[in-house]
Amino acid sequence: MLLSLQHSASVATIPRHQQWGPPSPEISRRRSVLCHAGELKAAVAGKHWCRHRCEHAVPCPWSPDGSGLNCLSGWLILESFTGMSLVVHLQRPEKYLGDIETWNKAEQQLTEALNEFGKPWQINEGDGAFYGPKIDIGVFDALKRKFQCATLQLDFQLPLRFKLTYSAEDEAKLERPVMIHRAILGSVERMFAILLEHYNGKWPLWLSPRQAIVCSISSNSVEYAKQVRARIHEAGFHVAIDETDRTIQKKVREAQLAQFNYILVVGAQEAETGQVSVRVRDKAELATVSIDDIITRFKEEVAAYK
């Protein structure tokens, strides 16, 4: 008996995104594409095993100088923000579509782009897709396992098969674009699983879903705790409040176990002076500062990706 396909995962939807109107699409128009792909259970496990990934399909002019590949520098942000090392490969499959001359030109452009990228890279012979040369960027997790993260691929076949054209400088002449498939993170879910292990559950402030919590010492300071929480929330930060009728020691301990970046303790003295007592995660420091000062500190840390 055949299984029903009503609830099956959709296949890669990149070809459907080639059909734009009017017939001459705006060049360099980016489309985010949701794709699904099977993963062998033996290859990945846990939260790393996911079938969903996201990439962009970018039609752009075929540029002899490779100027359309300047998006490579964006991947350095991942390394600088997280501290994870990048592993870069140029994929070269054994079988391919199209003529060898076009492939050689494309590989030459990718090679020049990688050299300008400034990171060590290697050629991965026999791997990659048959429809265009590809750059593969991976990262190592906390257990030194390599995972594919970002990709950049030149595709000459889809524009050819869908007859995509654009008006060149001479409007009477139509040119064939090249399709750039690129993904910064690949599978977002997998990347968050890698980051979770990388940070050991202790997210930096700019990524943390638990940036701060306000803990009231007694019922008399609950109203002020709500005011503090509202001020920080209005500034654009994730902030919780613990106004339960428990000792402050239990509240702080629970907040520490929940890995809040900042624990803000308020009592009668803080309410009178308009301040908060600050406890920083994994640090013994305890300081009393104004609400404006702590908001400024949050903004500076987020801006510095700490």
Automatic annotation (TrEMBL):
It is found in: Cytoplasm. Keywords: Cytoplasm, Protein biosynthesis. Gene3D superfamilies: Anticodon-binding domain (3.40.50.800), Bira Bifunctional Protein, Domain 2 (3.30.930.10). GO terms for molecular function: ATP binding; threonine-tRNA ligase activity. Residues 114-199 form the Aminoacyl-tRNA synthetase class II (G/ P/ S/T) domain. GO terms for biological process: threonyl-tRNA aminoacylation. Belongs to the class-II aminoacyl-tRNA synthetase family. Transmembrane segments: none annotated. Residues 211-300 form the Anticodon-binding domain. It comes from Oryza sativa subsp. indica (Rice). Its main location: cytoplasm. It comes from the Eukaryota. GO terms for cellular component: chloroplast; mitochondrion. The keyword Endoplasmic reticulum does not apply. InterPro entries: aa-tRNA-synt_IIb, aa-tRNA-synth_II/BPL/LPL, Anticodon-bd, Anticodon-bd_dom_sf, Thr-tRNA-ligase_IIa, ThrRS_anticodon. This is Threonyl-tRNA synthetase. It holds the Pfam family HGTP_anticodon.
